[in-house]
Write a structure and sequence with these properties.
Largest sheet: none
Number of strands: 0
Helix content: 55-70%
Order of helices and strands: HHH
Number of helices: 3
Strand content: under 5%
Radius of gyration: 18 Å
Structural class: mainly alpha
């Protein structure tokens, strides 16, 4: 009989390593660089300073420390699906910005929320 907790743990680790591989692959494809300016905590009232600093530090590590990887090494996530999601996101952002500048009605963000039952 399968040891489900161990399988789940192994798949979790594989997913984590895939994130690192994707950071490298997508960073290379889209020429991503970490050039986020220092954000003053006062600029974002809803975010606690320490959380923002931790997030930005982790993001910097993810981008700058991504080890070289190959598409074939991905175990859980598929690069094609990630690229499809990115391209759809870009198209939506472009559409929303164009609608904003034309003074037109835009998508409701609630349409993109995830409901967990």
């Amino acid at each position: 009989m399968a040891d489900w907790p161990e399988i789940k743990k192994d798949r979790y680790k594989a997913g984590y390593w895939d994130y690192q591989r994707l950071n490298y692959l997508l960073g290379k494809k889209y020429n991503l660089r970490y050039n986020i300016r220092n954000i003053s905590i006062e600029e974002i009232n809803e975010v606690k300073g320490e959380l923002l600093e931790n997030f930005l530090s982790a993001l910097k590590d993810d981008i700058q420390c991504a080890s070289e990887a190959k598409v074939e090494e991905l175990e859980i996530y598929k690069l094609e699906l990630m690229e499809e999601y990115i391209n759809k996101s870009i198209a939506l952002c472009e559409s929303e910005m164009a609608a904003f500048f034309r003074g037109e009605e835009r998508e409701r963000p609630e349409n993109y929320y995830v409901n967990i039952i």
